[in-house]
Design brief:
Chain A: GO terms for molecular function: Atg8-family ligase activity. Chain A: One of its GO terms (cellular component) is autophagosome. Chain A: Conjugated with ATG12. The complex is a heterodimer of chains A (275) and B (161). Chain A contains ten helices and nine strands. Chain A is an alpha+beta fold and 275 residues long. In chain A, strand 6 and strand 7 form a beta hairpin. Chain A is globular. Chain B is of the alpha+beta class and 161 residues long. Chain B is built from four helices and six strands; from the N terminus they run ββββααββαα. In chain B, strand 2 and strand 3 form a beta hairpin. Chain B starts with 35 loop residues before the first strand and ends in a 19-residue tail after the last helix. The N terminus of chain B is likely disordered. Classes of the chains: A alpha+beta (275), B alpha+beta (161).
């Protein structure tokens, strides 16, 4: 359907206006100006911030520079989470631009993983795709692909090439007609008010008696707290790519259209703003 | 269960390539795991390895998580890769399983589980003829890749469930 393809493009080309400011305690030779950048929601911080690094390196000595890392209002930003997820989770209801602090020292070993090169990001990305396919197709589709096909998925993401990416990714979005959907839906529900990083469980898009599962059905099953009763005021927002999809939306459709390039539905449950 | 493991820090290999693409795997349902800690003194050149076995609901197989540290500092993927036996390294490069990956939550490395079903299949076939201890057999395959050698004394266990 033409409309549905537009959704794929809207998701792919989503951007977040961001302002990068150097942490005040970093040692500089002169004042560091903030750096502005439109971050792609569907990519990863360490993949798209070379310009940020270059900008701040201009005012710093090499010996004062270690691995770059970011924080937002004191929370270290995990580079292995998609950018859009980080924003929805931590900065949804704050004013734009998104203000991120840049660090070059005191890497938080306990909070963050190191990212010494792009191959680390590629591996992480491909691992998610593989796991998603294990859930959707028992890994049959991804295993039938050749190494060059896997590479095409990564290059599409890295170079922001929608057509190149989806030429391959559409195979991962197919399913046998008689099944009505994927075997299980790859999703992760992220909570801000919890020690647990995320919820991930086995969940089918179609019930045994043929009933199509919705986003609401998923939440009721794995995180009922997120759904308020009619008489209560809404306590939580359920956000995917910066929007709150209707709870009646079929989960299979969400998986096909609102997944990240890694083929997972990354869902944020955040406190609703109190007006 | 404890094991002695003394690795020299060794020199970093310069021909470190893309093959060691780390992956991530996090499983919500952790159906128990055995922790195997290797304790050693504090002299440099000694590596502390920690192993956990968890169950992946996505892959429906066990998964081996591990982390290595020396003098309290976590080893990065390159260092871990350097400690993998050269024979295992060559095998890993060509698949069937890709990589040692880094794990979310806390920094663990994880052996990509997508090929477990493949190499365990012949074992499961045998299971119908004689009892097999899946975990011990599985661990004897994946353990050595990450420096965990199961002592031969475990082999009788492979015949009991």
């Amino acid at each position: 359907m033409a409309d549905d393809k537009d959704v794929l493009r809207d998701v792919w080309f989503g951007r977040i206006p961001t302002c990068f400011t150097l942490y005040q305690d970093e040692i500089t030779e002169r004042e560091a100006e903030p750096f502005y950048l439109l971050l792609p929601r569907m990519s990863y911080l360490t993949l798209v911030t070379d310009k940020v690094k270059k900008h701040f390196l201009k005012v710093m000595k090499a010996e004062d520079v270690e691995e770059m890392w970011f924080d937002f209002e004191g929370t270290s930003l995990k580079w292995h989470y998609p950018i859009g997820l980080l924003f929805d989770l931590h900065a949804s209801n704050t004013a734009l631009p998104w203000n991120i602090t840049v660090h070059f020292k005191n890497f938080p070993e306990r909070d963050l993983l190191h990212c010494p090169s792009n191959s680390v990001i590629e591996a992480h990305f491909m691992s998610s795709i593989k796991e998603a396919d294990a859930l959707k197709h028992k890994s049959q589709v991804i295993n039938d692909m050749q190494k060059k096909d896997h590479k095409q998925l990564w290059m599409g993401l890295q170079n922001d090439k929608f057509d190149q990416f989806w030429a391959m990714n559409r195979k991962l979005m197919e399913y046998p007609t008689e099944e009505g959907g994927f075997r299980y839906i790859p999703f992760r529900i992220y909570l801000t008010m919890s020690d647990r990083p995320f919820i991930q469980k086995l969940f089918r898009p179609i019930s045994p008696d043929g009933h199509t599962h919705t986003l609401g059905d998923l939440l009721k099953e794995v995180y009922p707290v997120a759904i308020s009763n009619d008489d209560e005021s809404k306590r939580y927002q359920v956000v995917i790519h910066g929007i709150e999809p209707l709870l009646e939306t079929p989960l299979q459709w969400l998986s096909e259209h609102l997944s990240h390039p890694d083929n997972f539905l990354h869902i944020s449950v955040i406190p609703a703003p109190s007006d | 269960r404890s094991n002695r493991d003394q690795d020299e820090q060794g020199t970093r290999s310069d021909q470190h390539q893309e093959r060691t693409s780390p992956l991530f795997l996090y499983d919500d349902d952790e159906d128990g795991g055995s922790v195997c800690c290797i304790q050693e003194g504090s002299s440099s050149g000694v590596v502390l390895n920690e192993y956990h076995i968890l169950y992946s609901c996505s892959y429906l197989t066990p998964v081996l998580y591990f982390r290595a540290s020396t003098l309290g500092m976590s080893l990065c993927l390159e260092d871990v890769w350097d400690s993998v036996h050269p024979n295992s390294r060559r095998r890993l490069q060509n698949g069937p399983w890709d990589i040692i990956t880094q794990q979310v939550g806390q920094s663990f490395f994880v052996l990509q589980p997508c090929s477990t079903k493949v190499f365990m299949k012949p074992v499961l076939v045998c299971h119908y003829q004689r009892q097999v201890n899946y975990i011990v057999t599985w661990l004897s395959v994946v353990g050595p890749i990450v420096g965990f050698d199961i002592p031969l004394s475990y082999s009788p266990l492979t015949q009991k469930c």
